[in-house]
Amino acid sequence: MAVVWTIGHGAIPRQQLITCLQQYRIEVLVDVRSVPYSRYNPQYNRESLASALTRVGIEYQHMVALGGRPVEPEYYLSQHVPTGHPDYLKKVDYDRVAQSDRFRAGLHDLLSLATQRRVAIMCSEENPAQCHRHHLIAVELMKQGVTAWHLKRSGSTSFVAVDAREVDSKVPGRRSGEETTQLGFDDIPPNEDGSSQER
Questions:
Q1: S-S: 26 plus which of 21, 77, 122, 173, CB 3.0-4.6 Å?
Q2: CATH number corresponding to 3-157
């Protein structure tokens, strides 16, 4: 059965993230950010990141179909695309997104890749409990019998893998926008701009 790892770059130095991917023998990093750029950490901009990964033998792919910020209003609970920097976990109707043709096709592509190679998906939010890579992608993977592991910083330079089932079991109303606490990720800092919002 396929296994998929997940990681959030946050403000992690890029070389640390790459070292983590190497430690877990990741062959392909799939970027699941809706917009594969970071104004606060440009080292994670698509071209720069892809180049750095290529130098160490890791393939980079961007799968926009798996992004957490849909552009269509029907995928939001309010039926309106929010502006500014909203907390997308509280705005997006992930159950509806999960049923969309675009997402299903993207998930199929991810699963096909994961059955052949060691794959990690990456988003900007370091804490998976606050990211669509858990609430949407990992949840849907687990429904299909796929094992999902969230790679989490442990200390300043090392990483550990946390079973996504453990995170999922501790998240009340995982798609309802309720607060997530006591998940073992309390030591993860918020996004690089100080927010804890999905990008």
A1: 21
A2: 3.40.1010
Tokens 């970071």 identify what position?
A: 38
Query: How far is C-alpha 122 from the chain's CA centre?
Result: 5
The domain ranges of the chain are: 3-157
Query: If the chain, 199 residues long, is cut into consecutive pieces of 10 residues, what is the mean pLDDT of each piece?
Result: 95 96 98 96 98 99 98 96 91 97 98 98 95 96 96 84 84 46 42 38
pLDDT of residue 155: 74
Which token pair is 47? 């071209």
Instruction: DSSP letter for 128, please.
Output: G
What is the reported pLDDT for 170? 67
SS3 sequence of 53-73 = HHHCCCEEEECHHHCCCCCCH
- Rounded-to-10 torsion of CA 60, 63, 69, 73: 160
Element (H, E) at 153: strand 147-154
Eight-state DSSP code of residue 122 = E
Distance, in Å, from the CA atom of 141 to the CA atom of 93, rounded to the nearest integer, reads 17
